[in-house]
Amino acid sequence: MPEIDAEDWARIEAWRELPARQRRVFSVLGPARCGKSAYLRAVRDRWPSATLIDCRGMSADTVATRMREECRAAPAGRPCVLLLANVQYAGELLTSTEPARVAEILAPGFRRFEGRQVWVMAEYDPGLVAPPRIAEYEVTLPMPTPAGGAAEEDPEDPAAARRLGALAAAELRQVPLPVWQLLSSASGVPTTVHALLSFVEQQTDVLVVDEGRSSVAFRSEAVLHAWRSRQPWDSAAQSRAAEALVSATANAGPGLWTEQGPVGQYAAHALPMHAALAGDLPRLLDNGQLLAQCSATALREALAVAYPDGVPYASVAAMLHYLEVQGISPSSQGEWVAWLHHTALSTGRTELAEELLASGVPLPWRTMWTHWRPAGTFGRVQGEAGRVDELGVVAGESGLTVVTARDVTTGKNAYPKHRYVRQEWNPMTGEPVSAPVEVHASLSEGALPWSNARRSAVPEAPDVTFAEHTDTGWHTDTGCHVGTPTLPDPPACPSAVTQGLYVDGRWVLTGAGGLFAVSVQEADSTAQDTYPKRPPVAAHTRPAPWPLPPSASAALRGDGMRDWLEETFGAGTCHRLAEDQLPRGLADPAAREFLTRTGLPEISDFLHLAITPRGDGPLPEVAWPGRGRDVPRQRRARNEAPSAGPFYELGTWMYSRLLLDGTTGRLYRDTTGGSPDPAAGSSLIQFFAMVRLYDEFRRTHFPYAADHKDALHNLARWCEQIDGAAARAEAWTLILEGYDFEDSTWDLASYGP
């Protein structure tokens, strides 16, 4: 065990005394086999309260769970001291971003836990993972003296080297012999299992076989990674391996791959990574029968490698990304496929959904119909139900009907106007029984006899059961349940699902994303623990920049701007002016074309923007404020006009008049409301494109906080592309940073996260 010299220990002691806000991870650095783990054990021996966690083979999420468990178990009143060994070897797969997730996200961010301070010391091999480099708080161990031997040298036989290279290319540390055989064939060295066993007996200083002589591994992680460097596989070799795995599993027949022997078990965990390294992961993701067999962990690690710059918008990869963002952590492959099927249906991928069902993976529950909004989508979706705040049921001549309600009360902080959007649905088909109607009473206040809010007051309720989804899982009210001998539990759900109603043999589930219905295969077949609200560390991937919506792109090119504006502000709200109605001083050709071809839109109660076109009358010309002689000189200087004008009043925005510069076509706020920055837009078309996009954003029912955040981030990026000068001005900066406007649009959409 290496010695900790006095200088190193003094540095460690100084690190211990730092306040939490200044403390960073203390790094133990060095190449393979230099004694980093032993160094951490020596620290633990001198610091008995410290806990050592070996990260080898563990996902970042598992490491995070262990760190939390150790902090809870540590003696009360003391700081938690965590020593992370083998960070460079984290991850179930050998090609993995898990070491980086531990090194860059988890370890630096774990400074406090449940009010207690946490010290983290971690081991890094800089050749495999980039450590945090803070010279004051790190120790670098020297390169070990080469031991020599066959483990350090390539075999004289090229075929033997390629066999070792094929074994190193495997994604698991312990490799079944049939998998090694398959990978050897993919690398151009066909062989038999018997020959591979004989080969292992000749390479005992490099390889070790398990007791059952069914799998093999390198004797050390360092030797394994050395062989990965010596015999790297290119994309063609990875593609051959992926194809061989697909063929082998197809020949094994239907059923779960994990039940079809060692090759199937390996494929379920490693096929996505081989496909990612081959540059062919999208083809696997689009094949529902293959997708259904791959574990959630395998897919997430492969996504991180395949899409380092972010998952593409509205892709299957994005679908998987948002499942992780929602905190969905399945306890079985069937539960994972049930969520894949649900999300495929919700995103309109019916063919993929059918392939998932045809995969042979048994599902504990199945989505029968869905009006649940797909995550990672900008703007409203045709036919979406919107957020559901209340849930009820009514009995009619044709049977029971599900009733949903959404609170759209406006003016809640001052003079509330209580309004609720109510709609009825067929619980068997999901078809709307009625159009959405606006009422002035909630379900609990109105005449609806059976609702989640009133169930305890109605002993004669029909054959239904209500359930509420909380942080501790589902809670059913069996007091309203009559006549059903066995009630299956609702499936474990993300936090956006808030209520449930068991009716006609299925659960209708509702929440921030709308509603959907599931059929549960067996009673008590699903876990009752709720999913976490977010991943334990962070999602493996992030979304790539979203493309500007096609309708916005077309409108900015001058195609369909009028229809696009009236789609949200109402038919007939764009008031055109005839050529002879345009003011003589309006010289800018783009502004003249907008006013005659698109027309000035009528807008109120949105972003403190009020535009009321004056029928067929011309635009009123006004002087820039502060120009008159009766205005004090100091105010005249502050309100200096941006140009010689003339200026035309369009309406008001953010407590100031919105003015159009007739010479340049630019829009300004006259700053009478106190803002020092008058910039509003470089042109009418750019200004109203940004207003229209923001209106779309504010009316959208985002079910998840991350979904809302991604949409706002991309909206800001689009506005920067459309009109960078205006987007950086004070007014638009305030808007795009999420200022809480009290207007009707805000209350119609999801509550801010």
TrEMBL record:
Determine the domain of life of the protein's source: Bacteria
Q: Basic and acidic residues compositional bias: what residue ranges?
A: 627-639
Which InterPro entries would you find in this protein's record? Answer: SUKH-4
Q: Locate the region Disordered.
A: 528-550, 620-640
Q: What protein name is recorded for this chain? A: SUKH-4 immunity protein of toxin-antitoxin system
**Organism in which the protein naturally occurs:** Streptomyces caeruleatus
